[in-house]
Amino acid sequence: MDLGLKGKVALVAAASRGLGRAVAEELATEGASLVLCARGAEALDETRNHIEQTSGTPVLVVPADLSLAGDIANVFSSGLERFGRVDILVTNAGGPPTGQFDTLSRESWEAATRLTLHSALELTRHVLPGMKERRWGRILNITSIAVKQPVDNLMLSNSLRAAVTGFGRTLANEVATWGITVNNIMPGYTRTERVTELARMMAEKEGISAAEFVGRWEREIPMRRLGEPREFAALVAFLVSERASYVTGTSIPVDGGWIRALL
Predict the structure, then answer these.
(1) DSSP for 43-83?
(2) Of 118, 127, 29, which Cα lies nearest the Cα of 79?
(3) Strands laid side by side in the 9-12 sheet
(4) 8 Å CB contact between 253 and 186
(5) Distance between CA atoms of 58 and 248, rounded to whole angstroms?
(6) What is the DSSP string of 172-236?
(7) Which residues contact 161 (CB under 8 A, 6 or more apart)?
């Protein structure tokens, strides 16, 4: 299936590892040029080199802290200078710290809000005018299964990714007439560094091994295994493609059946 992504320019946030990197690699395979950002310059350079060598796709990397509006502006302006436009935006950010309400300070909430919610808002604010002008655009927010079925001990993530979901769903109606789609995609337990670290921290609190804790997750998933980043990235590529031009305002899980809700 030709997804119609050849010649498109995609900005993928938090793309040096995990889900963001998998998305970048998938979009490169489909022929999209890439603007990638993350905090670590070394990991970003390695990601760029790998993608350019394996796909031949041009990749611009810009180190950035997505909790800082100035860094976000620099990512966008650098992409504009290199490629002239951004057709596709994939918002993404590292998960905020774990914890229950009583353990989280006002500062924790403010930092998590800047990283998780404000980064999606600011990235969208920059790309939207050009998308409207060209009457074509794709905005996809990477959220979490936690917005549908909250996960214990993830107060910040449960709350703020739900806020991103509300933003994306509302924006979808506002920009649909310009040929711009806005969707949310909800990863479940996927084999990434973030999930591995989360399992380690949760296991330590219970005095068990990380492998035992991962096994508990796997027993909750009807497919009885964690997802792979490439499986998640495949759906992202479709949702930001020309072929998904009538899909907007949705929140789609990639979770192996973990969410038990009907809708």
Answers:
(1) HHHHHHHHHHHHH---EEEEE--TT-HHHHHHHHHHHHHHH
(2) 127
(3) 59-63, 33-38, 9-12, 88-91, 137-142, 180-187, 251-254
(4) yes
(5) 28
(6) HHHHGGGTEEEEEEEE-SBSSHHHHHHHHHHHHHHTS-HHHHHHHHHHHSTTSS-B-HHHHHHHH
(7) 116, 143, 144, 146, 147
The tokens describing 143, both together, are 């959220």
- Residue 140 neighbours by CB under 8 Å, 6+ apart: 88, 89, 90, 91, 182, 183, 184, 185, 236, 239, 240
pTM value is: 0.94
* 10 strand-pairing partners: 34, 88
Each residue's pLDDT, cut to its tens digit, for the chain (263 residues) gives 789 999 999 999 999 999 999 999 999 999 999 999 999 999 999 999 999 999 999 999 999 999 999 999 999 999 999 999 999 999 999 888 889 999 999 999 999 999 999 999 999 999 999 999 999 999 999 999 999 989 888 999 999 999 999 999 999 999 999 999 999 999 999 998 888 888 888 888 888 888 888 898 899 999 999 999 999 999 999 999 999 999 999 999 999 999 988 88
Residues 154, 97 contacting (CB under 8 angstroms)? no
Q: At what angle do helices 193-206 and 210-220 cross, to 10 degrees?
A: 110
